[in-house]
Write a structure and sequence with these properties.
The complex is a heterotrimer of chains A (747), B (293) and C (163). Chain A is an alpha+beta fold. In chain A, strands 3-5-1-12-9-10-11 form a seven-stranded mixed sheet, with helices on both faces. A six-stranded mixed sheet of chain A has the order 7-15-14-13-8-28. A four-stranded mixed sheet of chain A has the order 16-23-24-27, with helices on both faces. In chain A, helix 9 crosses helix 10, helix 9 runs parallel beside helix 18 and helix 14 runs parallel beside helix 15. The relative contact order of chain A is 0.13. Chain B is an alpha+beta fold. Chain B has three domains: 51 residues, Uridine Diphospho-n-acetylenolpyruvylglucosamine Reductase, domain 2; 116 residues, 2-Layer Sandwich (Uridine Diphospho-n-acetylenolpyruvylglucosamine Reductase, domain 3); 105 residues, Enolase-like, domain 1 (2-Layer Sandwich). Chain B has eleven helices and 15 strands. The radius of gyration of chain B is 19 Å and the shape is globular. Chain C is an alpha+beta fold and 163 residues long. In chain C, 34% of the residues lie in helices and 15% in strands. Chain C has two domains: 76 residues, Beta-grasp domain (Ubiquitin-like (UB roll), Roll), CATH 3.10.20.30; 71 residues, [2Fe-2S]-binding domain (DNA polymerase, domain 1). Classes of the chains: A alpha+beta (747), B alpha+beta (293), C alpha+beta (163). Chains A and C meet through helix 1 and helix 17 of A and helix 2, helix 3, helix 4 and helix 5 of C. The structure holds flavin-adenine dinucleotide and FE2/S2 (inorganic) cluster (2 copies).
């Protein structure tokens, strides 16, 4: 349904968040707010070393161990793995440990204080083995810590012929870029409650993004049939990818304890455990070799992209894939080669985090573009302008851009809104006299919405809709609300499609016993992909009412309600469902790793203005302009909030958020020492949308969730270079890093 | 919560005498507990070794405030919010107000106390450099009586205090001698608010016609304790020259002993400490309006 | 292990007198959530850093994870559950309207911090007042911009209403 903006009643309107009142009054229930009769608390005993052989487990004196439920790998009835992609990660370590904080023993007890004493009293006797902590060590393979070669996955993208292009180049520019691990730092730590009875099987409640991932992992771990496992999402206090795969682990732990004890078991991590043990953004290293013509046209891009996956594969193959596809950016270049690898180390597995590999490769590319511009003697914006991909041209993976795209237009708007040209000139004049230097920089980028490649086709997501006896319409989907506005946006889409009041739409709490599998809530797919299914599922309801003659062609909300009631009286129930099918002409070839990588892209240009204080080397972002084209904006306030939040995380990624590792262990696993931006650290974040309706999205929408984290880091580091003339190629650019760069000394 | 809670005791006496008696009976058995913003963090982490606490938060004797011609005397329980709201401190002791403003967030400022900040003895604490610059004195009381000690000698070594286990800090006294001094405070933390210092600088100088007549320099996070830099101060007499600034910066690098930790590096701390000193000294040449504090 | 006895502590919560039996060093946060079932107060860090556990004690904003219950004897405690009357507080209303709450986990603490800002200022607080006043309440979802807007809007409304 192509939307006609004038007629829209709900799409494009800032309808307040559906669960907003519950959240501002403290009534919204998160997993830690729930208690069950007879409930035990669970705790996890973790490996203190990064790699080793488990020789024994000792339970020290002074603890009434007979009161405790104790679970080890031996208690696992099914397969000891967190079922996901390669199923290589054990749910509890058995014989060997491959990273610090790897879970080995589980304990449960009704007294949480005694439980803590007991956790400390379990001694793991582990013989340490040599461990691998850098990408280079992993690639050197002196220690093989995973599989045969430490490689989880590799990809090759080739278009044109890079090797033959070097000879024709006017200039060749090389660069190497690094990004660090980043903690998702959702404010609600991970948590789950599990119950288990012989009759009803297993039920878990918890904080999660993907109920059906957890469902599958529990079936595998406990060897249970589909109908014996039920997963219910509770209000979720942020995820950002951190609650994509890890909840399967903690749910497994709670389930094992519940099964053995016969009682409900709650596991909620404290902040230190959450930070130290759960996933982070993959650290990366990217090498670029770029050839340009005299006219400033890209001739060849040779890109090597490596991410550190940590000890187990988890989602690394798909993180790598997204990072690889985004590595060449929104540019047209006739000859591109991208070689990428995800390698194993002995860190806790790195996992999903908003952006999923793209922020890493885009950071490298957008820094490289500035370097190329500098060498060519062109302004950064001019080099980009000359190379933006246009409608009908082809991206690196062979995808022809069929949508209307105007990157140059977006850039002009961003430069204007940020007063870029005037500032660049003024800063250049004033900086020599100033101790606090100013700079301005930009990044232009794209972000694919939905699963990469054939992901959506394999997934075949399903959404249901049904009318209630009161004549309301309920949407059944496994897509979770974790702050991004799923419930509100689905309600808007459904109300708009049906032409009925917003309040007539109910979104059912994700519960695998009730909702069909609409896939995981990741990859900016919820609005565009699942939202489209919501639209067609509710239209199915309407269609049935229309064909039954109960509903006239033109109707009011009240008439719709009446018709539903009547239909249910006549037929018992009114249901409909809708399954994903790829938009026409979208095709991806898995074997060749070529084709239409994403159904649609969001496009953006971000501009950052910074101050660099040469007394303290502190960097401050003074202003931030984010201009993007994301299709139709369904709810401007929610969408703006998504972009602002993503930019804030991107600013953290660029400047503050530094995971400090020692022997594979995070040593700053506290909010005091892992620095995320406070309200005093952020500039005004100014968000602007260009709206170009996307034909295959609900009401014309595309995905926006991940996009905003791609741009800030390169824009900021480009601005730092503009301010201080120093070329920094790794983030976070802490004051210490900047000082060493400025003084040209390596610590 | 990683501590075994049933092992921790707290009493909340209402009279100072009663509290001091309890402490005197078995010195070291009961430890003072003020706003808890340091102690409760340790409890959370399972790192609170001491088990018995005496809340001093209800002791009226620790809430004194006195203003004479020569001194301002503050009760040890004064919170950061109260520091900022006290007019005489705003007028004559701006560095202390600045430190209080830059400590934690509002909730921490409502509970955290100056006495606790001093006794907690973190080398990264933000008020002590200001207190050192102001030549603060502490009044320590026990059941046996009270004594005044200069704050400058209070920190003996890392977390080691010139305070007996049965004593509490009752008052902090600031001589009103720095009113006409040029003063400068700058905290360099891990972020702009709610941050732990990586380097914290406080300085004050009595300047007359381009001549330095007297000076105080104190820093946090650059040594096992907060540090008054007397050797550096010693070089800063007479008319201020660029050579003098350079020599003082060199001396400062010798006088401090910063370390590498997960918040920063020794190199960074040294460089920035020197730059902050230079910033302060060069500011003395500029007209007073240029002062940052 | 040495065991300390639980003590009876009395205080008023949201205007209601309450007495709890608790270990003297129990965190006020746990007493509110577990003993009094006031789960609107959240735990994000347990170390005073995130502000999710903010409550008002005698009208002042504090982190309840850092308050031992024994010190709360005789005090007046206000939690998020005590902020709305018949209708939402102006701050809550503004948070809903402006998009100040996303995942909602920081929201109760943020609302309490904002309430103290709005209540205290006779005039409109500056953006700096707001930034500083909320710096002890971390939010990972919003980037704070919608929250600033909500606070400003609430101030306008309450100043308007008061004038
Ligand atoms: C989120 C957060 C942010 C913070 N930010 C900062 C910051 O920016 N800068 C900074 O300097 N600090 C900071 N702190 C630390 C802390 O707030 C301060 O050190 C505070 O001043 C401690 O005071 P208190 O009353 O809470 O001390 P408590 O925790 O009660 O006690 C601390 C120590 O002092 C002793 N003590 C307390 N009062 C007395 C007394 N009268 N006599 C003798 N001994 C006593 C106690 O026995 C204990 O050893 C922060 C803490 C938190 C939780
Ligand atoms: S839980 Fe109390 S401040 Fe984070
Ligand atoms: S709304 Fe999620 S942390 Fe603030």
């Amino acid at each position: 349904m192509q939307s006609d903006s004038m007629a829209d009643r709900f799409i494009g309107k800032s309808i307040p968040r559906k669960e907003g009142r519950a959240k501002v009054t403290g009534r919204a229930l998160y997993v830690d707010d729930m208690v069950m009769p007879g409930m035990l608390y669970g705790a996890t005993v973790r490996s203190p070393v990064a790699r080793g052989r488990i020789r024994g487990i000792r339970y020290a004196q002074g603890i009434p161990w007979d009161e405790f439920t104790i679970v080890t790998a031996q208690d696992i009835p099914g397969k000891n793995c967190v079922a996901l992609m390669l199923n290589d990660q054990p749910c509890l370590a058995d014989q060997v440990v491959n990273h610090a904080e790897e879970p080995v023993v589980l304990l449960a007890h009704p007294d949480r204080y005694l439980l803590e004493e007991a956790r400390r009293a379990v001694e793991l006797d582990i013989e340490p083995l040599p461990a691998v902590f850098t990408i280079d060590e992993s690639l050197a393979r002196q220690q093989v810590v995973w599989g045969e070669d430490n490689i989880f996955k590799s990809f090759l993208v080739e278009s044109g012929d890079v090797e033959s292009a070097w000879g024709h180049a006017h200039l060749i520019v090389e660069g190497e870029y690094e990004t660090g691990a980043q903690e998702q730092l959702y404010i609600e730590p991970q948590g789950m409650i599990a119950t288990f009875t012989a009759e009803q099987g297993l039920t878990v409640w918890g904080s999660m993004q993907c109920p059906y991932y957890v469902h599958r992992a529990l079936m595998t771990l406990l060897d249970l049939p589909v109908n014996q496992v039920r997963v219910i999402q509770t209000e979720t206090g942020g995820g950002f990818g951190g609650k994509e795969e890890y909840p399967s682990m903690i749910a497994g732990h709670a389930a094992l304890l519940a099964r053995k004890s016969g009682k409900p078991v709650k596991i909620v991590y404290d902040r230190m455990e959450d930070m130290a043990a759960t996933t982070k953004r993959h650290p990366s290293r990217t090498r670029h070799r770029t050839a340009v013509t005299r006219e400033g046209k890209l001739l060849a891009m040779d890109i090597e992209f490596v991410v550190d996956g940590g000890a187990y594969a988890t989602l690394s193959p798909v993180v790598l894939s997204r990072g690889t596809i985004h590595a060449a950016g929104p540019y047209f270049c006739p000859n591109v080669r991208i070689r990428s690898q995800a390698v194993a180390t002995n860190f806790p597995p790195h996992g999903a985090f908003r952006g999923f590999g793209a922020p890493q490769s885009i950071f490298a590319l957008e820094r490289q573009m500035d370097q190329v511009a500098k060498v060519l003697g062109l302004a950064p914006e001019e080099l980009r302008r000359r190379n933006f991909v246009k409608q009908g041209e082809t991206l690196a993976v062979g995808q022809v851009v069929r949508e209307k795209v105007d990157m140059a237009g977006l850039m002009e708007r961003a430069l204007e809104l940020s007063d870029y040209y005037a500032k660049r000139k003024r800063f250049a004049e004033e900086n020599p006299r100033r101790e606090v230097k100013k700079g301005i920089g930009l990044a232009s980028f794209l972000h694919g919405a939905g699963f990469t490649g054939s992901g959506e086709r394999y997934l075949a997501s399903l959404v249901g809709a049904e009318a209630t006896p009161e004549g309301r319409v309920r949407v059944l989907a496994a897509s979770t609300e974790m702050g991004q506005g799923t419930m509100t946006v689905f309600s808007q889409i459904a109300a708009e499609a049906l032409g009925v009041d917003y309040d007539m739409i109910e979104i059912v709490q994700p519960d695998t016993a009730v909702v069909p599998n609409s896939g995981p809530t990741v990859a900016s797919r919820t609005c565009m992909v699942v939202g489209k299914l919501v639209e067609s599922a509710v239209l199915g309801i309407r269609q049935q009412l229309l064909s039954s003659g109960l509903l006239p062609e033109r109707y009011t909300s009240e008439q719709f309600r009446q018709a539903c009631r009547q239909f249910i009286e006549n037929h018992g129930a009114l249901k409909s469902s809708s399954e994903y099918s790829a938009p026409p002409g979208v095709y991806w070839d898995d074997d060749k790793y070529r084709g239409d990588a994403y159904g649609a892209y969001a496009w953006a240009v971000y501009v950052a203005e910074v101050s660099v204080d040469l007394t303290t080397y502190e960097i401050r972002v003074d202003d931030f302009v984010a201009v993007q084209e994301v299709g139709r904006v369904i709810n401007p306030v929610l969408a703006t909030g998504q972009i602002e939040g993503g930019v804030a995380q991107g600013i953290g990624f660029a400047l503050y958020e530094n995971v400090v590792w020692q022997e594979g262990q995070m040593v700053n696993s506290q909010m005091t020492n892992y620095i995320m931006p406070t309200s005093a650290d952020l500039p005004p974040i100014r968000v602007f949308f260009e709206e170009v309706p996307y034909a295959h999205g609900p009401g014309g929408a595309k995905g926006i969730g991940e996009l905003p984290i791609d741009g800030p880091a390169p824009a900021i580091v480009n601005a730092i270079e503009n301010a201080g003339g120093v070329n920094v190629n790794r983030i976070p650019v802490t004051p210490e890093v900047l000082m060493e760069a400025l003084e040209g000394v390596h610590a | 919560m990683r501590s075994y809670l049933p092992a921790y005791d707290m009493r909340v006496p209402l009279e100072l005498d009663e509290a001091l008696e309890t402490m005197a009976r078995a010195p070291g058995e009961w430890k003072p507990f003020a706003g808890g913003t340091d102690l409760m963090v340790l409890l959370e982490q399972g790192k609170l070794a001491h088990r018995k606490f005496l809340s001093v938060a209800r002791l009226k004797g620790l809430y004194g405030f006195a203003l004479t011609d020569d001194h301002v005397t503050l009760g040890a329980m004064i919170t950061y919010r109260q520091v900022q709201a006290t007019a005489i401190l705003q007028q004559e002791f701006p560095l202390l107000c600045r430190a209080a403003y830059e400590t934690g967030g509002i909730a921490t400022q409502n509970r955290g106390t100056l006495g606790g900040n001093i006794a907690n003895a973190s080398p990264a604490a933000d008020s002590p450099p200001a207190l050192l610059v102001y030549d603060a004195e502490l009044e320590l009381v026990s059941a046996r009586g009270a004594r005044w000690v200069p704050y400058a000698g209070f920190h003996l070594d890392y977390k080691k205090l010139d305070m007996r286990p049965e004593e509490v800090i009752r008052n902090i006294r600031l001589p009103r001698t720095k009113k006409n001094w040029r003063q400068h405070y700058r905290k360099v933390g891990t972020r702009r608010a709610q941050a732990i210092s990586k380097v914290c600088f406080a300085g004050a100088a009595l300047v007359d016609g381009g001549e330095i007549n007297d000076v105080r320099i104190a820093l946090g996070s650059v040594a096992p304790t907060v540090l008054r830099c007397r050797k550096t101060e010693a070089l800063l007499r007479g008319s201020l020259t660029t050579e003098m600034v350079r020599a003082a910066c060199d001396e400062l690098a010798r006088e401090i002993q910063p370390i590498d930790d997960f918040r920063s590096t020794a190199r960074y701390r040294t460089r920035v400490a020197q730059k902050l000193l230079a910033e302060f000294l060069l500011g003395l040449i500029a007209p007073p309006a240029g002062d940052r504090a | 292990m040495p065991e300390v006895r639980k003590v009876a502590v009395s205080f008023a919560v949201n205007g209601e007198p309450r007495t709890v039996e608790a270990y003297p060093m129990a965190r006020l946060l746990d007493v509110l959530r577990q003993d009094l079932l006031l789960t609107g107060t959240k735990e994000g860090c347990g170390e005073g850093e995130c502000g999710a556990c903010s409550v008002l004690i005698d009208g002042e904003l504090v982190n309840s994870c850092l308050v031992p219950v024994a010190q709360a004897e005789g005090s007046r405690i206000t939690t998020i559950e005590g902020i709305a009357g018949e209708t939402l507080h102006a701050v809550q209303e503004a948070f809903v309207e402006c998009g100040g709450a996303q995942c909602g986990i920081c929201t109760p603490g943020m609302v309490l911090a904002a309430v103290t800002l709005v209540g205290r200022q006779s005039a409109q607080p500056t953006e700096d007042d707001i930034r500083n006043g909320l710096a002890g309440n971390l939010c990972r979802c919003t980037g704070y911009m919608r929250i600033f807007e909500a606070v400003l809007q609430a101030c306008e409304k309450s100043v308007g209403a008061g004038a």
